[in-house]
User: What shape does this take?
Amino acid sequence: MPLIARLGVIAAVVALSIGALYVGVGGLGIVFGSVGSTLTGFIEDVTATPTPSPSVAFVTDAPSIEQPAEPYTTQDSVDLIVSVPPGLAGDPSLRIRIYLTLPDGDPSPISDSPISDGPRTIIPVELSKGINDFSATIDGPGGESDASAIVRFVFDASAPKITVTSPKNNSVVNGKTVRIRGKTQARSTLLARNESSGSSVGGTAGSDGAFSLDLVLSTGINKITITSTDPAGNESETTLTLRRGSGKLTVTLAASDYQIKRSDLPQSVTLTATVTDPDGRALAGADVTFTLSMPGVATVTIDGKTGANGRATFRTTISKGATRGQGSATVLVTSDDYGSTQDFTVISVVK
Assistant: This one.
């Protein structure tokens, strides 16, 4: 209210007061003494500048929680590192409140901790299995601040599963290397070791868990160990046995004797052909032609087929008429599926 208006109100009040006192006490001296005291206090009250009441500052700035380098962990507890806005460190009237949000749940307060004197406050918390989302606020006499950004930890104590999709266990691979494909836990680190060749190769599974590793193979059987280490540090392994094939139809010819004394003639000899398909497996039913040419006697030829074990044999006799020198035995193999191939060996007649 303006000062002039205030003074008008005062004058009206004074006049009324004088009239009432005059009537009540019967004299102006007494009236003016009482009015003077009352008027002085009233004027001081009306004209004094109001003194503001004490107020409590409201906390508005949110704290922050340090993000972990790797959210996955095998530990059932972790330390949250919380930073508060400048000027709040060490304030005894304030507390850091931690909230935990589990999957399909709402944030729940789990702890109230004093703010340390330093720039960061370490707050230990326990983890539930799976995803744990943490946030923090500052609570004090002025209320509670906004919540910090979410920090996630994943408690994972289970070993990652490894599934090899290609090649199949105990299969034959035609080539110097094999590409191993499969799935495991996302972002897991993989290592494939070939115990047979001593070679190894590493890799990382994608966000969908898929992986692909190219590994060198040795001739014959290859025993391969694949290890997967998930982001939390859990480890598991699986084994894979592969056989390296030649990649083509093959035949090996062997003779029961490679040197025959002329004085021992006639002498029987057995030729054996062993046939394998491009995958290195015994090939049954392949057409086989044996040819034996020895010096001084007619060439002998006979046809046959391989058995279930991939073998065919030819038994013949080198006659007494054979002369000293080098002869040869040859086998020709033909397959409708894989084409043809051949092998030969030397048989000699000696003195």
